[in-house]
Specification:
Length: 310
């Protein structure tokens, strides 16, 4: 009898072990351990594509958001990125079809979508909104570690700091009145104007270029905020920063400024003191913010030369 009980116990333990093994295998299929050499990454924004380019090859990405082909200078300038599949909408079905093993998401992605993706064993890296230098460094560090390139993080950060330092040295050689110039980043598609206060990447770009962001004088909330024509008249900035028309024509924002009597009287509009940044630099939130600041500084220098010639 005791022998039978012993055999029964052993059988039960074996059965439990088999069940546990099956559960473990099922779990491993849901949450696979992905080797770093087999990365299949799906970014969800242009700036993520920029930062990923610092650590991985384009072939490590399964797809890129279609906006990256407009707002990522790095993707636009590299045929390997252009050859990748692209997607317009970030939904769970789109992600799962691509079979990535790492998805990088921004704070704007819903918790429900992230939860659905994780159920398929896909690793999800959630990044915080970043619009200043410390936020950018955190993003670079997080992405570098997530793709298994922790060994490169320190060097990548050092290189970007050198770029920023060289820009600061160049700005320091600018005319003495340069740091007193007030500039305003402005957008108006015909339904109302928007300015950019502190906490946005363009604010970092303006300050890194050695200029003052006039928008902060309105003491509005951080980030983007609506601006009336009266606000523009009150600020009357030395320069206005607009998104350049990719085809070289006049943008809706510039047409609006020229057509309205109030805004046409602004100093920057009357004197043609308009600084036009390409769209992929105007919206840069990656290491390309440094590029944007350098281009903005050069645009100002060129504008000043033209002014002196007249």
């Amino acid at each position: 009898m005791k022998r039978f009980q012993t055999l029964s116990t052993i059988a039960s333990l074996c059965l439990m072990a088999v069940i546990a093994l099956l559960k473990l295998q099922a779990g491993s299929q849901e949450r696979p351990v992905v080797p770093s050499e087999a990365l299949r990454i799906l970014p969800t924004s242009s700036d993520q594509v920029d930062i990923l380019s610092l650590f991985v090859e384009p072939s490590d990405l399964v797809a890129i958001p279609s906006q990256a082909l407009v707002y990522s200078r790095i993707a636009m300038g590299d045929e390997r990125f252009k050859a990748l599949p692209s997607y317009d909408r970030f939904i769970a079905e789109t992600v799962i079809e691509r079979e990535p093993n790492l998805v990088i998401v921004s704070p704007f992605i819903s918790a429900d979508t992230k939860s659905q993706i994780k159920k398929f064993g896909i690793q999800v890296l959630s990044l915080e909104a970043r619009h200043d230098w410390s936020g950018l460094e955190d993003a670079i560090r997080s992405i570098g570690e997530a793709v298994g390139r922790s060994d490169l993080v320190a060097g990548v950060l050092a290189k970007q700091r050198v770029r920023l330092k060289k820009l600061a040295e160049k700005v320091a050689l600018s005319p003495s009145n340069f740091d007193r110039l007030r500039v305003l980043s402005y957008t108006n598609f015909g339904t109302g104007g928007w300015g950019a206060g502190e906490g946005l990447s363009i604010d970092f770009v303006i300050k890194s270029a050695g200029l003052k962001n006039a928008a902060v004088e309105l003491n509005r909330e951080d980030g983007a905020f609506s601006m009336s024509f009266e606000d523009l008249i009150q600020l009357d900035p030395d320069y206005i920063i607009l998104t350049a028309n990719a085809e070289g024509g006049v943008t809706t924002t510039e047409q609006t400024l020229l057509a309205n009597k109030l805004t046409a009287a602004l100093r920057a509009v009357k004197t043609g003191s308009i600084l036009r940044l390409p769209a992929n630099l105007m919206s840069a939130s990656s290491q390309e913010m440094i590029t944007a600041a350098a281009v903005l500084h050069d645009l100002w220098l060129e504008a000043e030369k033209k002014r002196d010639q007249h």
